[in-house]
Amino acid sequence: MPETPAFDTVRAIVADIFEVAPETLTPATRLFEDLPCESIDLLEIGAGLNRRCRIPVDDDAAFLRSLRIHLMEAERERRDATQHLASVYPHLTARRVASIVEALRAPASPPVLTLADITAYVDHVRNDVQRTGEV
After folding, report:
1. Which of 18, 59, 66, 93 is the most buried (most CB within 10 A)?
2. CA distances in angstroms from 109 to 19, 37, 81, 98, 113, listed in the order given
3. For residue 83, what are the CA distances in angstroms to 5, 75, 116?
4. Residue 11 and residue 32 in one domain
5. Are residues 5 and 44 in the same domain?
6. Rounded to whole angstroms, how far apart are CA atoms 113 and 110?
7. pLDDT (tens digit, 0 to 9) for every residue of the chain, 135 residues total?
8. Spatial CB neighbours of 53, under 8 Å, sequence gap ≥ 6
9. In terms of domains, do 91 and 72 share one?
10. Domain count, the chain
């Protein structure tokens, strides 16, 4: 993912919260693995996105909070996990969804949320707002 204005905003918010130099953050930075992120920090990131990007923030979608639940749902219903997650998280590319599914199937897999995932959410919501005119 190339760095975009949305990424710059996400990076600035995350850098402020975790008190790190923005240039140390990349689209591939994993919030729970590479930063000292805890669930409560996601609320602060969400508030920052809402304030600075002027978009509504659905925490479940933006931060992939129910990812494992959706994966179990797909397995229980014998649905293709990749297709199911792609429908739940339309802001993610097919390639990203496939990599998430692969990562989650590994034993003791860590959380997979990256700055690129949050940036994709911001771009997706901005496009919806532009298209519909609704905030």
Report:
1. 18
2. 27, 16, 16, 15, 12
3. 29, 12, 20
4. yes
5. yes
6. 9
7. 557 899 999 999 999 999 999 999 999 999 999 999 999 999 999 999 999 999 999 999 999 999 989 999 999 999 999 999 999 999 999 999 999 999 988 887 778 999 999 999 999 999 887 777 765
8. 6, 9, 122, 125, 126
9. yes
10. 2
